[in-house]
Amino acid sequence: MMLRRGFILFLPRLVGLLVVACCSMSIVYMLACTPKGDNQQLALPRVHSPTAKEGYEAILQEREDQHRTYIISLKKQIAQLKAELQGRSEQLKNMQNQYPDPLDIQLDHSKPEKAQANLLAFLRSQVDKAEVHSGVKLSTEYAAVPFESFTLQKVYQLETGLTRHPEEKPVRKDKRDELIEVIELAVGSLNKPDGVSKAKPRVYTASDFVEGIYRTEKNKGTLYELTFKGDAKHQFKKIVLFRPFGPVMKVKNENVNMADTLINVIVPLAKRASKFRQFMQNFREMGIQQDGRIHLTVVYFGKEQMSEVKSILENTSKSANFKNFTFIQLNEEFSRGKGLDVGARFWKGNNVVLFFCDVDIYFTAEFLNSCRLNTQPGKKVFYPVLFSQYNPSIIYGHHDSIPSLEQQLIIKKETGFWRDFGFGMTCQYRSDFINIGGFDLDIKGWGGEDVHLYRKYLHSNLMVIRTPVRGLFHLWHEKQCLDELTPEQYKMCMQSKAMNEASHGQLGMLVFKQEIETHLHRQKLSSKKT
């Protein structure tokens, strides 16, 4: 009862407090929502004021004037942006006309003048883009494109590979013709009358040429700087020439279907059963399981270890359900050229891609596709440059153990080299091999037969595709150079043996091994004393 009576007495007070709160909130709301006067915003006239109508009209007029001014300002900004955009478009169009896109240059025979003008404009732009008149900023010391120098008889080059020398005659016809043309153009330029001097001009000849340097920027052109003897001692004439590279042009766009293109891998062999077992592991994984469009022909010389080799072949056939193989046995002295020639001619099916291979080769499924894509009957033969492995015991001698074969097959200068002096691994259609005359069967033993076949193709109208490939490896093995080889063959064999062991730096570490160990021993003694 007491609680109820207290609540009844408190209720009027509560209602009063609520009323006061509501009134306060209303006052605050009105104050907050009332427009400010003066210059910020005109106050709304009171509803019952005699000037209410005129006040509203004035406010609306002012708002309308503000919006109109804002719209005019926006229109001016849009017009300015349009003008700027038009100006930028004109600049871009002028630049495109001055430096046309290579892919947009069309040699339209219906408008030869326009096509020629576009081409000349592009070629001039190549001079401006190249490092002819001034240098460019480079990120590192290795980013500079080096020059090579030349005289009338010699070329001095940095990128020698394994088949070229630091100083040599320009053997390649394209390089020889290029340098002769450049010298002739320079001589012609020197002998061209200048129209100023009345004295009898000196006649320059190629014998006045002292030296030249040249370098090629792959996407721009080749720069030549040639020096000739001047009119007096210590005076010279310098001619700068530039051969700009033309625009990229589409030559062909075609679909290539290799689904039914079979490769016949031909391997000549004598003994070496353990190597053949390793080869068949690679052949099974890459050729049978991953590629599947492959035939294997083994031409075996003699009878020693023959049963073991046949057993390896038959076991692979059963376990992989592989029937596309041929085994040919010859009772005669081993000859690589004879084995490959017999294997190629033994094939009785349709025209097939031949891959001449050795038992110490490792290939990938990607290489087999490269083999197909770079051969074409009557047009192209493929001579890949394989990566030759160094002696693993030297490369990994400081390791706890030698890695597995798959882990060793990485392309680095410490692990191997591009075997650009070898021509034994090659892909070609059987029809081209037969038409060219096959191998020279008079060559016996090791080496020489592949070079003779390669030269036959070079002397024919077929295109020879010669390029390094990332999926073809020559596995290291100890090379034996037999006494019965001819002097030329023995020399080639020893050169190949020297190349196979290790890199220049690694061989140097072996030569100075004793000196290095002595130094380390002294360092250890010195550290103990301190």
TrEMBL record:
Spans traversing the lipid bilayer: 7-32
Coiled-coil segments on the chain, per record: 71-98
Keywords: Coiled coil, Glycoprotein, Golgi apparatus, Membrane, Metal-binding, Signal-anchor, Transferase, Transmembrane, Transmembrane helix
Cellular component aspect of the GO annotation: Golgi cisterna membrane
Predominant location category: Golgi
Family stated for the protein in its record: Belongs to the chondroitin N-acetylgalactosaminyltransferase family.
PANTHER family from the UniProt entry: CHONDROITIN SULFATE N-ACETYLGALACTOSAMINYLTRANSFERASE 1, CHONDROITIN SYNTHASE
Protein's recorded name: Hexosyltransferase
Species of origin: Chloropsis cyanopogon
